[in-house]
Sequence to fold (314 residues):
Amino acid sequence: MRIPQISVRLVVSILVVLILLAIAATSFFSVDQTEQAVVLRFGKYVRTVGPGLQTKLPLGIEKNYNVETAVVKTLTFGYRATDISGTSLSGAFVNTDESMMLTGDLNIVDVEWIVQYRINDPQAYLFSVRDKETTIRDISQSVMNQLVGDLPILAIMTSERTNIEYEAQREMQELFDSYGFGIEIVAVKLQNIMPPEGEVQDAFEDVNKAIQDMNTLINEGKQYYNQEIPAAQGEAEKMIAEAEGYAAERINRAEGDTARFNAVRNEYEKNKEITRERLYIETMEDVLTSDGSITLIDSNLENMLPVKAIGGSV
Fold:
């Protein structure tokens, strides 16, 4: 009778050990550095935890769902890439069901683009939408079709590319936020925009080439402008500086002459006879010594031929 009792104890011990191992095995879970984990208790959300070794209630009472929140995911539209990056157009498979669109001027255009996003709310991402990728694709296509349908084909292919990318990102984010999707749109990039193949495509290629030539000429003109205008401005500033210097010199000389004249006038007013005589003498000295020769004529002589003296003598 003792053998069965030992067997029961052994079985109980084994069961206890197994239960403890099960509890230990189901009480811990790890979260990668690029992830966050959503924890459910009997199927109801209780918390979100970050990277590291985490604990939970064992035996399936709580379950964890790890979600990549630090990884930027990429979806391609109009083509399916075959390279490692998942975005290259080289060797890609074309999907015209996504890329063919009607423009605002009733032309057909082939638009290929990518959407990059990351998960910023793991709980909302897991439980707000059932088919996540399909929903992202449907919203992205709807927004892009609307933007392309409001613009002429030439603007879509040239000047409005950046604006389309910006508006698409903004409108997609608003829609995803309204649905409580739990994702953040990182970027929307247009990859390739082309008209349908054939004569239309050839015509648009000619237009694009003409636009590129026009931009080249504009850039060359701007470069020439940037070279010549500063030189002309420098020359003009030099001429202005020289004119201002000449004007200052003339003004200073005129002011000096005026001051000198005023000084002489003041002296003249003090003693008019002496000043008059001094001025007369100074003037005569200047006249008689101007060229080194002197010619004197007696006013009382008549029919006299004046003889020019040599060496200052008569």
Q: What stands out?
A: Helices lie at 2-25, 96-99, 122-127, 132-149, 153-157, 161-178, 199-270, 272-288. The first helix runs from residue 2 to 25. The longest strand covers residues 108-119. The chain has a mean pLDDT of 84.
